[in-house]
Amino acid sequence: MKHSLTLILLGLLLSSKLFANTEQLWFSDQPPDRSMIKKMRMRHGGYVHIEKGVDVKQLWLRKGDSLEKSAYLESAEGEYQLLNVQAEMNQPEIDKNSRQQTIRFPMPDEGYYNAYFTERLVSNNTLKVKTAKAEILKHNCRNGHKYDRDLVNPQQWLDAPLDIVRLRLPEEDFHTRIRSGTTLKFQVYHQGKAVSGANVKLETKRGWIKSTQSDEQGIASFQIIQDNFFDAEKAEKEGKKVERGHGGRVRIRDGYLVTAQYLSDEAGTLDDKAFSQTEYTVSSTGRYYPQQLAKKSSEQALWFVSAGMLVMGVGGYSYRKRRVKPFKEESFDEH
Amino acid sequence: MSIKSRIDRVDLRPFRFWFQLLAFIFLVYGGHLAVDLGNSLPTFSCGYNSQGTAGVCYLLPLQHQLAQPWERLFSPAGIAVLSGFGLFVLWFVVLNKAWCGYVCPLGTIQDWITGLRKLMGIPYSNYSDDHFNKLKYIKYFLLLALIFIPLAIGGQFISHDWGVPFCKICPARMIIPAFNGDFSQWTIDFSSNTKMVLTALGMFVVGLFLVGSFIKKRFFCFFCPMSAFHFIFSKLSILKLKKDGSKCTVCGDCYRVCDMQIKPIADDIESVDILQDDCILCLKCVSACPEDGALKVDVLGKTVFEATRGGFSKRMGMEKNDD
After folding, report:
1. Is residue A316 one of the residues assigned to a domain?
2. Do B212 and A312 touch (CB under 8 A)?
3. What is the pTM of this model?
């Protein structure tokens, strides 16, 4: 018994150690200055600026494992890249007026845009290649809802040092929300090839962490926790302050940060510093929402349909009965 | 015989049956073939039928757009609301209220339920004149509610749980997706008291709809806010229903065949533009009229279908006797 407990504790320790030395780099679309949100517009893919009628996305580079507390980077040495809907690779504009590391890019077309930031540095004889990835949806309901599957499916950067791709849910479209309890699948690629045995970790905003390894096809699966979401109404009744977005709407959702790490024996030199192995990491974020059917009942619905039918049936019958005029025979005395 | 005479003698029932069936298939399943007519259709092509719909009923985006924060709604961004509305009017002017009588999937379902009642030999019901005149205002009340409730959401007077209030109680939300095997809307949402009340009311209305359409022709159309919305713009349409009172004998045939129980179609011999707010432009009145030119349908001022003695005789099966 003692041995098993020791093994479990050792396992837990090791799994957390897998990412212990790596503070993740990741993109956030939440501005460091919350008042900035008032000037932005909420779209299906998060907050955007509107410039000359075109949605312009702004992303900030952050470092750390916590979606809540990670710092906004003020400087970063690396390369930004943008994969647009047409699968063309471009350089996004770096906002030089901002104190933080932030990029902006227009999203004129419907579909997914992928932004990347890659940092390379040698430390402890290891080349550390860290990639922050953001997958951003551009969709406006005015453009209709006939989804081209190529636009719904994920884009892939074939030359990515390490890429993590969220595989789409069956029947996923631009309105699909990831719900608590859903199994999410991520595929890890190293320079366009699926990587097996990569360490993949998912951490929710609330701190739930799970780690696994990618299988032969490079796929790692996580069932998103059946979380208890923030009850804004209850909190307000208790006198707590609730932060509301545009129009007073409280968006009940949570976020996750998923990170993949892959160690290779690639050796070489970078800026005259030799390294004997290479450690690749990539991080990406996503959102999830409460389970849709958790608070819905079809049984109760059928009771209400039946009640409606009964009321209409009885009401209609009695209305008809009341309107039947008794037969009155008129007779004339012709004599 | 000229083409016009042939059209005037046509039996409208099979034509309408097939037209409605094709329109139903097109709007309810067309989405599977990537047909997309946009979000401004003046008919109940339900947006909740997400996989199959070939276009979305305008009432859904209208309520959605009006619920925007006022500072955005009354800013240049509000142009999107106007452009959606402009498209709605453009669609509408083509067919006028024939969108109800020939295209609306929910209307077609009611006609099929009526057909079932006929097959079973059960007589239909009508409202008394008194009840008719009182109940006809419900659709205007619903129209005002579906405009002002979203505006109140945008002004932060009421909760977002009231979002798209009419869709929550519209039977199309439940019934039309069911034709694609999607029963996900047949639920009561207990996530808030408002949603619970609205979704429960919606399910209750489905019950009323199913039995109501069985005993009263076009039961739901009488309360339909889209019908009220149509009537506001009906003068703009290129398709018009006209009456020549001097040729009308007030025989009442047109009233007797009217699914919507519209009395002025027979009684009113003054008005030329005879279209009423409850009319679904099914044109049964025109085909049942025995008087030459008493009722007619004009497109851009040109008569395309009119009542004729010959047409009436043919449709009534009296042609041989006439000969």
Report:
1. no
2. yes
3. 0.76
